[in-house]
Every structure is written in C-alpha cells, then in structure tokens.
Design a protein that fits this description.
Elements (H helix, E strand, L loop, with lengths): L11 E7 L5 E6 L1 E4 L2 E7 L3 H8 L2 E7 L10 E7 L3 H15 L1 H13 L5 E8 L27
C-alpha cells in the first residue's frame, strides 16, 4: 500500500468526502485493503454515501476510533460498490481484518434488518508519478565544447 505504509497497520481510516460546496466532511470508518483498494462499509443512507453519489473525490488518512488523525491525508477516488460479488469480497476482507468484532456487528445488523441496507465503498489512492528530468549533454558549438544544455 502507498501513503508510507501508514494505512497497513491502521485500524481506522478517516474518510473525507466532499459536499457540493467543496467542504470536506471527515468520518472515521473501518476499512480493509484488498488488491490495492480500500473497502469500507456504511449505512446506505449515510451522508458519505450521498456525497459519493455526487463526486468521487475523497481523501483518506489513518486515524483513531474518534477520528484523531495519526497519518497524513492522501488523495483518493471513491465509489459505491454496485456489484454484489465485489460487495461480498469487500465484506470478507472486513471480516478477515476485524474478526469477531465484525461478526458481532453483522449479527445485530441482521437482527435489526439493517444488513440489507448496507453500502460498500471502494477507494483507490491517487498515486502521483514522479517526473524525471533528463539531462542531455551536447556541445553548443565547436568554440565552447564544455558547455551543456538541459532538456526537460
């Protein structure tokens, strides 16, 4: 994982989603990584889900259960998972990470009928590519053979 591998050991993630006005709203969430993507679950009618319907722009950072940041913000793109098979895989990744805690939450969600109302979210960190500068040494003329030019 990127972001300095801070998210690899984090138990909670602050998910920043954006209102139409551009204001970021931060929410601490459980998450699990699978194949380079972050998976999050939420109530289907939660604000973060509604905001992601309007824009896939997001930011993520490691945090505590109360939302206190323990890592730096990283840019991300997030979406609501529509595919049932992918939602099952996301749920399995969360069960694998959180174990008995996730199972207890699932049990009570089933009892209350909220399990079917869940939404799974997928976030992909934006990876900035480094731009290398290529320097090519060429004589400018026969008179000045030791000078060079830089080509970017």
């Amino acid at each position: 994982m990127t972001a300095g591998n801070v998210l690899d050991s984090a138990r909670y993630l602050s998910l920043g989603t954006f209102r139409k006005s551009g204001v970021r709203v931060d929410t601490p969430v459980w998450f699990a990584e699978k194949e380079g993507k972050l998976y999050i679950f939420s109530a289907g009618n939660a604000g973060k889900v509604k905001r992601l319907r309007n824009s896939d722009r997001a930011q993520v950072a490691a945090c505590t259960a109360t939302g206190k940041l323990t890592g730096e913000w990283s840019q991300a793109r997030a979406r609501i998972v529509e595919d049932a098979h992918l939602a099952e895989q996301a749920h399995a990744a969360l069960v694998s990470k959180y174990g008995w805690q996730m199972r207890i939450l699932d049990f009570f969600s089933r009892l209350s009928g909220k399990m079917k109302q869940r939404a799974f979210l997928e976030a992909i960190l934006d990876v900035a590519t480094e731009v290398d500068t290529i320097i090519e040494v060429q004589p400018l003329s026969n008179k000045e053979p030791n000078q060079a030019s830089a080509i970017e």
